[in-house]
Amino acid sequence: MSPILPLPLPDADTLRDALDVYPDTRRVECATGDFSSVARGKHVARADFEGQVGCKLPSVVLGLTLTGGEPADVIGPVLPASYADVHLVPDLSTLAPRPGRPGELCVVCEPSGALRPDLDASALSPRAALRAALVRLKAAGLRATVAPELEFFLLERGAAGELLAARAHPDAPARERACEAYSLERAGHFDGFFDALYEACATQRIPVSGHAHESALSQYEVNFLPGEPLAQADAVWRFKRLARELAARRGFLASFAAKPFLDQPGTGMHWHLSLQHTDGRAWPHAFSPPGGEPVLPHFIAGLQAGAAAAMAFCAPFDMSYDRIRLSDAAPSHASWGEDSRSLAFRIPASSPAARRVENRLPGGDANPYLILASMIGLGLDGLQAARLPGEGQALPTSLSAALDALQSSSPLRAQLGAPLVDAYVGIKRHESAERQRHADPRQQWDLWHLVELA
Fold it and tell me: Model pTM greater than 0.90?
């Protein structure tokens, strides 16, 4: 049985009260994230949303690959081949206006409904997996605060399909020719894009706190304020979609692909995490206890122990391993230590109240829910077993090796449930096999699909 439980269905009064905050609503977008964190779902009329308390969606959507494939290892063995509907249950705390769409709301949903007598659709939800990890954390008397840093490229395709730095609009005469790291002038060309992005983030309560040109050609980084893990994962998931949509409307691409340029640094999604006790003690910060108990080293030891398997989430595509192999501050070992950006698990210089670990393994193409679910679960394992960290083993250098490690990982199978792990592995193996059928997999699959969808 899966450790993941369905999202509770809101009652009619609660649903109506949430909608009444936006009295002009005509339609509601019900959105759920798949394993590749693509937003899938439906737009439904307000009355239908109220009547169904969400909407229905074919269950096959939960097993699709990035390119719409239906893996034989997933459809049938995990998901029923009948394509039966599942219920998208809304989390009303996420209900917000759709930016630029008067009269429309959007809400994050999770799938629910029996797929088999022993399997609920929620067992295949990355978001529900994170909720399950947070339940376990709460039972241990702890809560987490997290803050992501997210990198992405602004790109366009040339006449021959090659990737180029984006121009601020299709008629703009200026284009970045070589990396202009931390250039305010080059970033200023895209003020209109970032203004629209910040406005959309405010509408959807995404706590973006700043941005800068990063250290690759036409690469930018956005920082988020610290917050609660589920809300932060929702924020990153929504942010990636907003950035892609707003860029496309301006004639260029926002891409979270891990390594679009082999001679430039890759795209990261770094997560800062701290733990706090919830028992009301005067000093709640678990990573800097007055007695000096090694809570933070235990937590890091758990991350190290599961790092090889977690790489399947941190680097979810074959292209992702170009970022690891052709490293530029992307870690190749499960290393840890103080304030070095070459480490997998970095402890930044900070005050005791802000003591935290930064996980630098995930790429921009990672699923934020699965990253945080595995990070919290593995860290808690290390804490409860009082593990001590070591130097850190070498990490997988291919998707195939990472998937093998995930498939055989007893801790992650226990934390996430066998159905989720088996479905994820089946989907990723199918994508990889599809990619390998091309004469030039990087050009014909990675740069064709991942630049726009990762």
Answer: yes
